[in-house]
Amino acid sequence: MNNDVIRLPLMMVVLCAIQVFVLNHCQLFGCAMPLFYVWLVVSMRKSTPRWVIMVLAFVLGLALGTFDNMPGVAAAAMTAAAMAQPKLLELFISREGDEAFIPSMKTLGVKPFVNYTIVLVGGYCVLFFTLEMFSFFNMLHWLECVVGSTVVTVALILAADKALHRA
Predict the structure, then answer these.
(1) First to last CA, the chain
(2) Main-chain dihedrals φ then ψ at residue 28, nearest 5 degrees
(3) Which of 10, 29, 116, 140 could form a disulfide with 92 if both were Cys (CB 3.0 to 4.6 A apart)?
């Protein structure tokens, strides 16, 4: 856990910088936006207390939302994703699993990690774009944003995980 005291704040700063300076300026087809910072919640250690995950996710979401001039949207969606993360992780690991492992393709296996990432990122995107649009009058655009952003974000997370852990 001592390693997390350095790893998590550093990861928050790096993910925030990548999102603000690079990924916020990349929007595919007018709807698919990479939301790579969700990787913070995806990669939380199993033994991390839920309140720590939620506070870190809220702070990162608030920081990112401040740069986007909509601080409540990312903060609420990140906090909800952080709340769901421990229970979702339990669905994709074996019961006798190590309490201190960090979810990755190497530790979970490729298929369970991909499924876990899709579910967590997909849920995040649904909430994020629902709060951002705050309307269901244009359901097709909302669906394009949710699906497109989920696909792009999951692809980025899987590529980064593969590069980082050499699975």
Answers:
(1) 23
(2) -85, 125
(3) 116
- Chain Cα centroid distance, residue 29: 21
For the chain, the maximum distance between any two Cα atoms, rounded to a whole number of angstroms, is 48
- Which of 124, 91, 99, 113 is CA-nearest to residue 157? 113
Amino acid 3: pLDDT: 72
Cα–Cα distances (Å) from 148 to 49, 79, 119, in that order, read 31, 22, 14
40: which 2 tokens? 């913070």
Beta bridge partners of 28: 32
Which letter does DSSP use for residue 134 in this model? -
Buried-exposed string 80-100: b where 16+ CB fall within 10 A, e elsewhere: bbbebbeebbeebbeeeeeee
For residue 167, pLDDT over 50 is answered with no
User: Please, is 107 exposed, middle or buried when counting C-beta atoms within 10 Å of its C-beta (0-12, 13-18, 19+)?
Assistant: middle
**CA-based nearest residue to 106, from 40, 161, 45:** 161
pTM above 0.70, yes or no: yes
Residue 2 confidence (pLDDT): 62
